[in-house]
Amino acid sequence: MNRYETVFIMTPVLSAEQVAETVEKYRAVILKNGGKTIHEDAWGLKKLAYPIQKKSTGFYHLIEWEAEGTAVLPFETEFRRDERILRFLTTAMDKHHVAYAESRRDKSNRKAEPKAEAEVVVEAPAKAPASKEDGSKTEAKA
Amino acid sequence: MADKKVRYLKSIDIDTKADRYCRFRKKGFKYIDYKDADFLLMLCNPQGKILPRRLTGTSLKYQRKASQAIKKARHLALMPYVADNLH
Questions:
Q1: Residue B20 has what pLDDT?
Q2: Which stretch of DSSP H or E encloses residue A29?
Q3: CA-wise closest residue to B50 among B59, B40, B36
Q4: In whole angstroms, what is the distance from residue A29 CA to residue B20 CA?
Q5: Closest by alpha carbon to B42, among B78, B17, B66, B68?
Q6: Which CATH number is correct for A2-93, 3.40.190.10, 3.40.50.620, 3.30.70.60, 3.40.50.740?
Q7: pLDDT of A54-65, one tens digit each?
Q8: Domain B28-87's class?
Q9: Which residue is closest to B69 within chain A, CA to CA?
Q10: Is the whole model's pTM more than 0.80, yes or no?
Q11: Of A130, A91, A94, which is closest to residue B30 (Cα–Cα)?
């Protein structure tokens, strides 16, 4: 089993239900190919950095999923056939990427419920002094 | 070896030598996120080109990762391929 992360962009002409329907379709494709969805994140309507198919905005959606490597090709084929999809990118996640994604999720969870006990504080203090040093350096330079 | 002193392949920096260091190595990065376009913007010039290592001081290991991340971000239209005034 490998972990993958797919970001895809849907056309902005879709209604909210159509977006949900499209996403549901890809969830089903993952299941059908013997994988499972681990995490999802809808970024919503975002402005594109450059126009794609003459559209300047798009609905971004991220799916983190787990499956055998053979599941990737049929999954991507579905994207290529779908006219609602402007762009997609599937990335195989290595262990650092997985750790990063999980710590980020924990962080956003903690933000949502600030009382929740923090288990992953390890990364925060490690980063804080580094950035402080960086700040003082730039100050010194200025 | 003997004439090493007199040959300069780049301008001699007097006073202008800011200490360069690899920001990724220093902060202990394990993974560079292609989804974080605001961060990747720091490694680009105002035209959206990837800045070379000799300017940013990034080590080769992280420059490779960063350039891959920037290219992924461009594909997903999170960053422009060409721009006029990014910063």
A1: 79
A2: helix A16-32
A3: B40
A4: 48
A5: B66
A6: 3.30.70.60
A7: 999 999 999 999
A8: few secondary structures
A9: A91
A10: no
A11: A94
DSSP conformation letters of B12-46 = --SS--PPP--HHHHHT-S---TT-HHHHGGGB-T
What is the per-residue burial (b if ≥16 Cβ within 10 Å, else e) of B11-40?
Answer: eeeeeeeeeeebbbeeeebebbbbbebeeb
* Token pair listed for B73: 């971000």
d(CA B65, CA B58): 10
Q: What is the per-residue pLDDT for A135?
A: 43
* Residues of chain A predicted below pLDDT 50: 116, 118-142
Picking from B31, B39, B71 by the largest number of A CB atoms within 10 A of its own CB, the best residue to mutate is: B31
CB contact under 8 A, A99 and B31: yes
Residues B31, A94: C-beta atoms closer than 8 Å: yes
For residue A71, report the phi and psi dihedrals to the nearest 5 degrees.
-80, -15
- Partnered with residue A45 across adjacent β-strands are A59
